[in-house]
Design a protein that fits this description.
The protein is α/β, with parallel strands linked by helices. It folds into 3 domains: about 180 residues, P-loop containing nucleotide triphosphate hydrolases (Rossmann fold), CATH 3.40.50.300; about 140 residues, no CATH class; about 170 residues, no CATH class. It is built from 26 helices and 10 strands. The strands form 3 sheets. It has a 5-stranded parallel sheet, with helices on both faces. The protein has a 3-stranded antiparallel sheet with strand order 8-10-9. α14 crosses α15, α18 runs parallel beside α26 and α24 runs antiparallel to α25. It starts with 19 loop residues before the first helix and ends with a helix.
Length: about 525
């Protein structure tokens, strides 16, 4: 689209459009007598970064309690350890202070030593000077989801903000409590410093839409046109602005009626399909099924829909509450699904019940197998044979696990060490240096010529060391990856379960998990092939 009137996705951070109520809520909470630490929550593409950027600009241009604004997008390069987090925060604070007209050289020098004690000391000095900091942590989902940051770090962060003039605003797709992966981290009192009522960012409301439409001063929108614009886009920012851009491209000005909007929306759909696809894929299966139900069968009593599923659809504008009913909205999504093919909304029909799952899971496994090249005919046939026993004979489907594990390990050793399967001396010396009392190295030394032992359990241990999957060991493999080791180890455990059932039958769901591990092992070996 040439010369779009409004910002399009993928460009630099655009100016904020609409959102007056949300911005005022944030501003009031940050500038009141006892300011709050805030959490902004909203789905992808809804404009959280735009709001954070607008907030930073407003703090810089208007009178506020804050001397400095530190805007940090943690989703770009997420910290991978407590030390990495402190280092990055020190660097960003130092850069932030460097932009001040005041003399902050002493504080910046103090931050060159990337330690929490120096960071906390500088924060205390700044508060004493009457120079509070507002920290904006955008993309906070990423570091929380990785689960690599400890509760100790968050305890340290709490000491910087709790009871202090410095404040923090985070932006995430889900509530913070749902993102914290580490049990150690979730117990930190840091999470209690945030206002219990997070700032939720959803689709543009009517006030937002009216304010944005007024930006097109050369166009006069009829009431019906505004309704159609909302019906097509559900007010979700990239869709709403995309249709407006198309309207501005189609007609230079004048009256905008229903048909003008309908034509523009259909044209814009092609350019917005990637965005719609990403939004749709972000929905969990239950939410997709609920939307398909609403499209196929009509309204549903609001209370009869699952809370998580309906909340997911509502925040994206895919559904709305009308009285006591939940109804589908966003005509662009409906058109996208219909255009994507007959199965785009059929997950409920395929896997909506346990009976459906059992009836269709074999087909899904076979489709996954078809994705993988037949790089080793025997291994491919072993996995295909195991799939054939799903779902009727779950115990039998695991009969091939031993053969699958053995064939996979043999392929790995051939790739890594050649037909002789002799482990290079330099690798053994390295393992011996890291763990002089290691049983695996001692066992290998018992073999003639450092060959790989025949015991498959020992071989799993060798693969663990070779891929760097054990703590303190660096990867020394030429081709094999940690993913391969994890899957081999899982299959080894499933194999033991099959060999020692103790009278307990294998549940179909467990058997499917075992076969999926075999499939993904096959895919890993395919990717790792020297050819």
């Amino acid at each position: 689209m040439s010369n779009p009137r409004f910002p399009i996705l993928g460009t630099d951070i655009p100016p904020m459009l609409g959102r007056a109520n949300i911005m005022q809520r944030i501003w009031n909470d940050l500038t009141k007598t006892t300011p709050s630490n805030l959490s902004i929550i909203g789905p992808r593409f809804v404009g959280k970064t735009v709001i954070m950027n607008a907030l930073a600009q407003r703090i810089a241009n208007e009178e506020s309690p804050y001397e400095f604004v530190l805007h940090w997008h943690l989703g770009h390069v997420a910290p991978t350890s407590d030390e990495d987090f402190i280092t990055k925060l020190c660097e960003r604070l130092r850069d932030c202070l460097a932009q001040s007209q005041a003399d902050t050289s002493e504080y910046r020098k103090h931050l060159e030593d990337h330690s929490f004690s120096n960071l906390a000391e500088v924060a205390d000095f700044l508060e004493e000077e009457g120079w509070p900091i507002l920290m904006l942590w955008d993309g906070f989902d990423k570091p929380l989801g990785q689960g690599k940051l400890t509760g100790h770090l968050w305890d340290q962060m709490r000491s910087m903000f709790y009871g202090k003039k410095h404040k923090i605003v985070t932006a995430t797709r889900k509530p913070l409590s749902e993102l914290i992966r580490s049990q150690d981290a979730i117990t930190s009192p840091f999470w209690n410093i945030f206002d219990m009522n997070p700032v939720r960012v959803d689709a543009f409301d009517e006030q937002d839409r009216e304010a944005i439409i007024k930006e097109l001063s050369a166009h006069s929108f009829q009431a019906g046109a505004k309704t159609e614009l909302a019906n097509w886009s559900a007010g979700f920012p990239p869709l709403f602005l995309g249709v407006l851009n198309q309207i501005a491209t189609d007609i230079p000005g004048g009256q905008v009626d229903n048909e003008t909007v309908n034509r523009a929306a259909k044209k814009a759909l092609e350019n917005l399909s990637d965005v719609i696809s990403a939004m749709w894929q972000d929905c969990p299966a239950g939410a997709k099924d609920l939307y398909s139900h609403l499209v196929d069968r009509g309204d549903l009593l609001f209370d009869d829909a699952g809370k998580d599923e309906r909340d997911c659809l509502i925040e994206k504008g895919f559904a709305r509450k009308s009285g006591n009913k939940l109804t589908a909205s966003c005509r662009m999504l409906k058109a996208y699904i219909q255009g994507a093919g007959p199965d785009a909304g059929s997950m409920a029909r395929l896997f909506g019940s346990w009976e459906d799952y059992q009836a269709n899971i074999r087909s899904l496994l076979e489709h996954r197998l078809a994705h993988i090249s037949r790089f080793d005919d025997r291994l491919h046939r072993l996995v295909a044979r195991a799939i054939e026993d799903i779902p009727d004979f779950p115990d039998d489907c695991l009969n091939n696990l031993t053969s699958i594990e053995e064939r996979a390990l043999d392929l790995i050793w051939q790739r890594e060490f050649g037909e002789s399967k002799v482990i290079p001396q330099e690798i053994l010396d390295y393992w011996d240096q890291v763990d002089p009392s290691g049983k695996i190295v001692q066992r290998i030394k018992e073999q003639e010529g450092n060959t790989v032992p025949g015991d498959r359990g020992i071989q799993c241990g060798i693969l663990q060391l070779l891929t760097g999957s054990r703590i303190r060991f660096e990867a020394r493999a030429r081709y094999a990856t940690k993913d391969t080791y994890v899957l081999i180890n899982a299959i080894h455990s499933f194999r033991n379960r099959d060999q020692h059932p103790g009278g307990q039958t294998i549940h179909v769901g467990v058997a499917v998990s075992a076969i999926m591990s075999c499939l993904e092992l096959l895919a890993c070996l395919d990717r790792e092939s020297p050819a």
